[in-house]
Each structure stands twice: as structure tokens, then as C-alpha cells.
Amino acid sequence: FGVFDSNINLAGVFSSLVYSGWIVNRTKSFKRYLLEHAFGVNEEADWGKMELVDNLGNGLLYATWGVYILNTLEIQTGIAVKSLFSLGATGTLVFSLASKDIASQIMSGLTLHLSDKIYQGDSIELEDGTSGIVEDLGWMQTLIKGGNDMVTALPNTAITNQRIYNLSRTPRSQVKQELRVSYTEAANIPNFLAAIKEEIKKSCPKLVTDGSSPFRAHWTDYGEKYLMIVVNAHFYIKPTGNEYWDNRQQVLEAILRAATKTEVHLEKACKPATAPRTN
């Protein structure tokens, strides 16, 4: 069909591509070595930021290699493009749509990498409810590992088009609990509220008490059958990980001790404490 010119040195072209690919691979390894030493290799190193720089470096390497390949295969590339357009309008349309989608994914990946919103290893929550730890931040998709250990692969376009809540960069957390008590317990409520705050202060050393965030225990409303109480506390703890959940349990135990001390009976169907959906 006259696609290949008999004067083209296919062996030379092939060896050139293989050799350039080997150089790219070795450059990646050396770059990774330099980054690990630049960011440190101890437990306190910011691995997420290192992965970000590493991915950007890989993108630059692959882009340079791609230009080299196109330059090496200049003649073959020109023939390939002509052959593509010879497919007709339908083939051209399919190729254009596919290329547009790929380009959109890559641009979204580049946006995520440059935006500094998330790093690999960050605990995040998206506007659509997806939450977990960023396992891999790629150019086309991002892998998020949920609390049930299931990994969700999301296209980068789906992430950049919604709000991202990075829990790993949130220095404080909140525990909010709604309680219900019987009308017959009304006289004991003031003592109960004071006891709740006292027990939480004793049990939670990282409680925010300087007024920058609320620390409240209030009787808030009359219900149809019960009196409504809200406990709202903030802590110098990130809203993710074992430290958060241990502290949340301490708050619940403190409320229970306060109820026992003041002889207040908590009714069933209390609203669960506010908590992130990550592990």
C-alpha cells in the first residue's frame, strides 16, 4: 500500500526509540533518588508533596520523549495522519471526540497537581460524598481508598468539578451530639449541662476553650415528647484517623458519666455525633 518507504532504516528507528526509552526510565529513577534525599526519608517527610513533584517531573519527561518520538518518526507520522483522514468524516469525528476526552482528563490531572489541593496520602471528602485516603494521584484518574478498604477510581474531571474537603489539612475537629431527656428531668438539666462540660474538660486535653470555637452544652428546644439538648465541642485534633475517633469516644463517655452523676436518664434515638465519613 505504499505506507513505508523502502529507504527508511526501520532497525535504526527501532533502536533509537528503545535507547531513548531506556534513558527516560533511568532518568526517572535518578530523579526519584534525588527527590527522596531532598524531601528526606524519615517518617516526618512530606511524601505527598514529593509524589506531586515526582509526577510533574514524569510528565515533563514523557512530554519531551513524545516530542523526540514525533521528530524521529516524522515521515511515518505524516503518513499516519493522512491515513487517519482517509477514514472519512466518521473516523475523524470519533478520533476527535476521543482525543478531546483524553486531553480533558490530562488537563484536569495537571490542574490537580498544580492546585496544591490534595497530595497522595491525604484524607479527603468530596462534595458528592466520596471520601477516603488518596492512594494515587494520576494524570487521568485518582484512586481513593475508603474506610471499608475499597478503592474507588475517579476520573480527574469528576474531582476538579466539585468541592474538595481536605481533612488532613484541617487542624481542628468538631463533635456535636443531640440528646433527648424526659420532661420529668427538667429540674436536673442545669446540673446535667454543667456536669457535661466539666467531664469533657477533664477527659479531653485538646479541647478548644479559648473562645475561638464554641464549646456549648445547652437545652435548645421543647420536643413533642422530650426536651432537646445539644453538646457542641471543638478540639485541636484533625477530623480523621484514630486520634479523632478516640477523642470522640471520650466525649460520649464524658456525657454518660455526667448523666450518671446527675441521675438524668437519656432517651433513645439520640442523633449521632457529627463525624467525617473517612477512616
Gap between N and C termini: 60 Å
Overall geometry comes to: elongated
Q: Assembly state here?
A: single chain
Portion of residues in beta strands equals 15-25%
Summarize the main sheet.
Answer: 5 strands, antiparallel
Number of strands: 8
Q: Percent helix among the residues?
A: 40-55%
Ranges with pLDDT <50 over ≥5 residues?
A: none
Q: SSE order in H/E notation?
A: HHHHEEEEHEEHEEH
Order of strands across the main sheet: 4-3-2-1-5
The radius of gyration computed from the alpha-carbon positions, rounded to a whole number of angstroms, is 29 Å
Q: Quick check: average pLDDT? A: 79
- Structural class assignment: alpha+beta
Number of helices: 7
Task: Report what the structure shows.
The longest helix has 30 residues, at 10-39. This protein is α+β, with helices and mostly antiparallel strands and 279 residues long. The protein has helices spanning 10-39, 47-72, 74-85, 89-115, 156-160, 189-203, 241-262; strands spanning 123-126, 131-137, 141-145, 151-155, 164-166, 173-182, 216-222, 226-235. It is elongated, with a radius of gyration of 29 Å. The strands form two sheets. A five-stranded antiparallel β-sheet has the order 4-3-2-1-5. Strands 6-8-7 form a three-stranded antiparallel β-sheet, covered by helices on one side. The protein starts with 9 loop residues before the first helix and ends in a 17-residue tail after the last helix. Helices cover 49% and strands 18% of the residues.
